[in-house]
Design a protein that fits this description.
- 2 copies of one chain form a homodimer.
- By secondary structure, chain A is of the alpha+beta class.
- Chain A folds into 2 domains: 177 residues, Alpha-Beta Complex (Nucleoside Triphosphate Pyrophosphohydrolase), CATH 3.90.79.10; 59 residues, Winged helix-like DNA-binding domain superfamily/Winged helix DNA-binding domain (Arc Repressor Mutant, subunit A, Orthogonal Bundle).
- Chain A has 5 helices and 12 strands.
- In chain A, strands 1, 2, 3, 4, 5, 6, 7, 8 and 9 form a 9-stranded mixed beta sheet that branches. In chain A, strands 10-12-11 form a 3-stranded antiparallel beta sheet.
- In chain A, a hairpin with a 7-residue loop joins strand 7 and strand 8.
- Chain A is globular.
- Chains A and B meet through helix 1 and strand 5 of A and helix 1 and strand 5 of B.
- Chain B binds a DNA duplex through helix 5.
Chain lengths: 274, 274
DNA sequence: ATATAGTATTATCAATATGATATTATCATA
DNA sequence: TATGATAATATCATATTGATAATACTATAT
């Protein structure tokens, strides 16, 4: 085994080397975290007396009110603090900017194109977050930097290169592709369009071999509801009997049923976390 | 749509804002890339007159000969240059430190624990590289920093938390786990044990739903050879008829066969890249 | 009370895929 | 010509899949 303290060619021990090490010898750059937060908007559609849940996949966007990209929509993000891990930074920034706390996150991808930010070299570690919207309340942002917070609905069928984002309340519509930085023509700030696209592809991929989708769901849900979520994330329709067979392993029936729907009730299930 | 040039609360246009922006307002930190390079060591075992290829999965390690972690084994890595993307940085560093050029890489994970490097805050974007060893030649490193370059054999059965690394030529053996930084007890430099573990899990996972494994293989190979590679990456034995059925979709027979093996020859196949 | 329309759920079945074992093929040597 | 070893295919019971059909249940309309 190695015997410490070793001395290098200059006769220095590791402790001595570190005392004379100059961090300013390198290029100035910053590291930020930006989080793609997905949730499901589950609104009740009523046609005559009949009721149906319509599910939408949504992503949380903030309107920037300072330079750069003033006026454009962006992901919640911020710089990594001195004494926190990347995961901690992502959670802290999310809490500060949106009020969302204790959410499921996973690291997504790191974006480091030299021209992705006009201020300086800023390397962004992107995170994916999934939340059950019914459990959380968005706060009014405390920072002066953000004027607006909105859930944009996502339309992203399979085998399409671009995705459509719609903010129904304001009638705003954004078309997002994967353009390389500086993505000046993008309706989103910086390269955040690429981040959202990457997040969607990760979610679409992982939904088949992990259980992350249940982070989007309330404690109790119907199989039909669950299938619709698989369909909007996967971007394609599924056959109900096939879906039910496969999902049965992951969920447990509660014996409770939906009511007053104008058709046969659906049973409520919970995630089988075992 | 947004009308440019917009002015912020201070009456500044974006151009004016950028002119007065101070990059030195933030913490000093650096970003590096470290690459986990895997390849297959395919050595011919001879028992009496009979010959058999024995496959080993190996990872490329460099012995550090400067502080910090002087004397420990590390992954090829270096700092990200001012005007290059992260991918370009990974490829450049790999070329400079090992002589490997034009290899398959993909971004793996970003490690950013505050104590992962004793010099300063250094955030590392880890890459995974897969090469066919028969196509490349390791050069003697040009940098004074490295005295040794070695392919360590990997032993990593399924459902084990740690992996064993062996350098047969030197009789060296390392046991690597996933200890959080600062990983002072690790036989590897910094948190590079975690990087290798992460790379192995990525490879093990992706081998089933992508074709990345062919980056490890020479142009022509036998199915038995291919199965052994799946087995050492997956960490478990596979049934030959089952494996053959599944892999048949991805490969094309050449009509050529191995020779002088002391048993029935195997046909050589190529990757069906269509 | 009964019919109706709509969604929820299960039944059914052919086709395909899988896991496992057994059999055959081929070569270099004894 | 026999032997032992690996390569490759055959076989088959079982499990899974894709698809369609049939049944179940409820809120309203009649």
């Amino acid at each position: 085994m190695t015997n410490y303290p070793l001395r290098d060619q200059n006769g220095l021990t590791e402790a001595a080397f570190l005392r004379q090490y100059d961090p300013d010898a390198f290029e100035r750059l910053a590291v930020s975290v930006d989080t793609v937060v997905f949730s499901i908007d589950s609104r009740i559609q009523t046609e005559n007396y009949r009721k149906l849940d319509e599910q939408k996949l949504t992503v949380l966007l903030l309107k920037r009110n300072e330079h750069p990209c003033l006026g454009k929509w962006s992901l919640p993000g911020g710089f990594v603090g001195e004494k926190e891990t990347l995961d901690q930074a992502a959670l802290r920034v999310l809490r500060d900017k949106t009020g969302l706390d204790d959410v499921y996150i996973e690291q997504l991808y790191t974006f480091g194109h030299p021209q992705r930010d006009p201020r300086m070299r800023i390397i962004s570690v992107a995170y994916l977050a999934l939340i059950d919207r019914s459990q959380y309340q968005l706060k009014n942002p405390d920072s002066q930097k953000i004027t607006d917070l909105a859930w944009y609905e996502i339309d992203f069928p399979k085998n399409t290169p671009t995705l459509r984002l719609k903010w129904e309340a304001a009638g705003e519509m954004l078309e997002v592709g994967n353009s390389p930085p500086p993505a000046l023509g993008s309706p989103l700030a910086f390269d955040h369009g690429s981040l959202i696209l990457e997040g969607l592809l990760r979610l679409r991929n992982k939904i088949d071999y992990t259980d992350i989708v249940f982070n989007l769901l309330p404690g109790k849900f119907t199989i039909t509801h669950l299938q619709q979520i698989y369909e909007i994330i996967g971007g394609e329709k599924l056959l109900a009997p096939v879906f039910r067979r496969k999902i049965a392993r992951k969920i447990t029936p509660t014996g409770e049923y939906t009511q007053e729907r104008g058709h046969r009730p659906s049973q409520l299930y919970v995630y089988k976390d075992s």
